[in-house]
Amino acid sequence: MAGFEMQRDKMERFKEELVKYIRYYNNDRIKLRLNGKSPV
Predict the structure, then answer these.
(1) With left for phi above 0 and alpha for psi between -120 and 50, is residue 3 left, alpha or beta?
(2) Domain that holds residue 19
(3) Which of 6, 18, 23, 40 has fewest C-beta within 10 Å?
(4) What are phi and psi of 31, to 5 degrees?
């Protein structure tokens, strides 16, 4: 059972990091096409 809990914790951490990255990608990163401006 301990292995299952560890896997679940890893998956939760992965999902949290993925959401943060998607937010960064869509809102904060600099886009070359926009002449160095963020998309928002």
Answers:
(1) alpha
(2) 2-34
(3) 40
(4) -110, 130
Q: What is the DSSP string of the chain?
A: -HHHHHHHHHHHHHHHHHHHHHHHHHHTS-BGGGTTB---
pLDDT tens digit sequence for 4-34: 788 999 999 999 999 999 998 888 887 777 7
Q: What is the model's pLDDT at position 40?
A: 62
Against a cut of 0.85, is the pTM above it? no
Cα 14 from Cα 10, distance rounded (Å): 6
The answer to the question of residue 40 being in a domain is no
User: Do residues 26 and 39 touch, judged by C-beta distance below 8 A?
Assistant: yes
